[in-house]
Amino acid sequence: MDNSADEMEEDETEWQNSFVDPAAPTPAAAATASGPSITKTHKIILHFDLDCFYAQVEMIRNPALREVPLGIQQKYIIVTCNYVAREQGVTKLMSVTDAKEKCPELVLVKGEDLTHYREMSYKVTELLTSYCPLVERLGFDENFVDITEMVERRLAQTVESHKFSFKGHVYNHISADVQAGDHPRLVLGSEIAAELREAIHSSLGLTGCAGIATNKLLAKLVSGTFKPNQQTTLLPENVSDIMGSLSSLRKVPGVGHQTAKRLQALGIIGVKDLQLFPLNDLVKEFGGPTAQRLKNLALGVDDSPVTCTGAPQSLSDEDSFKKMTSTQEALEKVQQLLSSLVERMHKDGRQPQTFRLTIRRYSATNKWFGRESRQCPIPNHIGLKITSGSSEDAVVQLLPVAMKLFHKMVDGSAAFHLTLINVCFSNLQPRGPAVSGKGSITSFFSQSTSPRKTQTCSSQCQDDSCQSGDSRLMDRHVGTHIQHKSQLAMNSTSSSKATLHGFKWKQSSVVAVEENQKASCSTAGLNTTETNSTKTHLLPPNVDPEVFKLLPEEIQNELLSPAYSDSLSSTSKSSLATDVPHIPKNKSSQPFTDSQNITEVKKAANQLDSSDTATAMNHQGPPGTSAVPEVNITERLSFPRSSDCEFPGNVDPEVFSELPLDVQRELMSEWKQQKPILKVPSSRKQPRSSMSKDRKAAGKSSQANSLFKYFKPT
DNA sequence: CAGGGTAGCT
DNA sequence: AGCTACC
How far apart are CA A168 and CA A227, in angstroms? Predict the structure, then answer.
């Protein structure tokens, strides 16, 4: 076993000749390579592709479905179907009507709720990860695994007399004609692939295909060559065969619609065209890196590493529909999407820092494509509601935030027609023990916490400990996997919902609630959220709103930026100190610095019609059409009347007013509870009663009043 | 493209 | 924030 290095050298020449790998070799098996100048990079990559994944999951849930033609339906299309249905001509992404026509017996199961698929998907990835740490997900049903190290270890243990033979198919070779001895690593790769497929089948009941090759591109391409439940190895000598077999450029992973079109414009139609196309000309159209990459892909060359996917970087929920034309419908849809998303987020355990709302508008031309989104930071107090499991509270507080974003894109006073709404949490921060020894599990997610770039997990483990301990033991044979299987079995039966797609990096169980964040939450909460132009009432006191409106947006944004208002507020504060003695010295008052008369809010909420509230009611009109000039808003925002009825600064009154009444009520009580941390001066000179009537006086608000404009509405 | 997700680059 | 890509 000591001579493994020698064997590798020989092997190296073989694969190295097979294609040009222009990129600098990765450190790969450098540790075991003995050649002085040649760094060995003979990677062995597996690609797993589960058979008709959604259909399999449904057939596991209801075994009776195994014997009937089954289609998984999302809206009006069959996203996938089992092989019984395929025999009758049903295909993926076929419309329901076409499918029923082909196969009247087709049994349909709704597949819009991805929960079960997602859970099963993560179990597969988790299982693979337990054997080999370098696993990259591609969608819900595919995984890449870099097994280079595992292969090298097995090779080192392989006895001289070992008889090499491939498991499964070998691309373009008939069965047993291959001199397997020439490709020991790929043989071992095929054995490992077979074991992993068997593990997936025995512990999860899923079948799938695998491709074994020397890079991701090739592994993926070859995995599909024998379709259900089989595996195929691609030898380096057959790379050009498989690339040449592709019917169009679009079949090359990495070449999408747009790229294909641009290539076509250059007269590049097939893979061979691209292989032969002068790189220089390609560079002119695509730029250096992309041009080289495209050419490489056409040649079957792909040096991209298998990157550990880890836990998802965002969670989203969406729904599409034929038409949505009122903000009422939108609000209800957003609420329902939020409910499930918040639940999922809670189970994940991490705390989202960013919320995004995206829409798709209908238009006769260009009906598809064209999504618009707006995002904003999530105030910490809401984030904590999510992680702590106060889901309803979280939804209630997120709803106005979402609607605010909605109205940044959709003018509620004009006609609109939406066909999709999506809600998304991102910038997911691990919560956990404040101090994490870098020792174990916690270090796993501490990496993702900081910068954000999942480590590339360069193929050869930099951290040998992670591999050696576990992998070596479970490396050898299926028998050693039994332990894992039972673990997984227990896992799947006992954990049901709580564990969900729990990786070790999931870390959700560790709940170290950091109460001290309250202080910092306030600072984080505010200023960040605003970039819109219509908020002249947010302006620093020394800026004329009329002038402001005329400024370029960049400048406007700068004026509104935290940095600017910070510096400004400190000066203002000192100058205002006498005027408004109760203003706190820090800006921590933010989330709740804005204030509003509670009776006004209540009245607006209830759409009362008393003359007293008539003016306030104007704000409920369609945004932008309000007959009430912004002074009114400013005015209201500038005069907190009563200490027990603060209106949080990040809430847009107009949005608030369109929320369901019960949500308004809930929000109000929330805010009251939060009130203790509000640092807004509670005692104004003016008794609140005068406020509602005397708008003009308020409108002429002094500098002191203007200060409140920092505590931005909307 | 459909559909309900994802991720990375710009 | 949008585009492109992947499933």
Answer: 12
